[in-house]
Amino acid sequence: MTDNNANDNSAPAKAIKKPKTSQNRRKSRELVLKAIYRGMMNAGELKQIASDAKEDPDYIKTDEAYFKQLLTGVTENVEKLDQEISMFIDRKINELSPVEHAILRISSYELFFDVSIPYRVAINEGVELAKVYGGVDGHKYINGVLDKLAAVARPMEFRK
């Protein structure tokens, strides 16, 4: 007895492996960092900066909705974020490296405005960005500042 399917050359279609949400969000944070940095250096318009970010080859790897939420949230709350950051840094805010300043803005936004992200994740993601894009040992500075910010932004969660 022969199996009718034995000669069938059509293999089942492989499932497309969708990147994990955490990876998508990490890539979103990276592109938001580039966009915020660009905005700080060139004072560009948000729509243009967001449009340009979509042309980055890594954009297809992002969580697009999160990218938009984060970029818009940071830019709309820049004064509040900078005010909070200023309380925990050892210099004037305009003396921060632009990359570290942008990272602090992104992570601060997550701490203050996006409680769906655990505070430890917000800190860790900021530290990881600093390791890749920041100066030597900048990640240690970022970690210290974000740890202090988390105590203010999420006092109940921080105490646990």
CATH superfamily: NusB-like
**What's the CATH architecture?**
Orthogonal Bundle
Main beta sheet: none
- Measured by DSSP, the beta-strand proportion falls in under 5%
Instruction: Indicate the structural class.
Output: mainly alpha
Report the uncertain regions: 1-19
How many domains in all? 1
First-to-last CA distance: 66 Å
**How many strands appear in the DSSP assignment?**
0
Order of helices and strands: HHHHHHHH
Q: Cα-atom Rg, whole angstroms?
A: 20 Å
- Overall morphology: globular
Mean pLDDT: 85
CATH class identity:
Mainly Alpha
Task: Explain what you see.
The structure is a single chain. With 160 residues, this protein is mainly alpha-helical. The protein has one domain: Orthogonal Bundle (N-utilizing Substance Protein B Homolog, Chain A), CATH 1.10.940.10. 65% of the residues lie in helices and 0% in strands. It is built from eight helices and no strands. Helix 1 packs across helix 2, helix 5 runs parallel beside helix 7 and helix 6 packs antiparallel against helix 7.
Question: Short description, anyone?
Answer:
The chain is mainly α. Helices cover about 65% and strands about 0% of the residues.
Essential attributes:
mainly alpha; N-utilizing Substance Protein B Homolog, Chain A
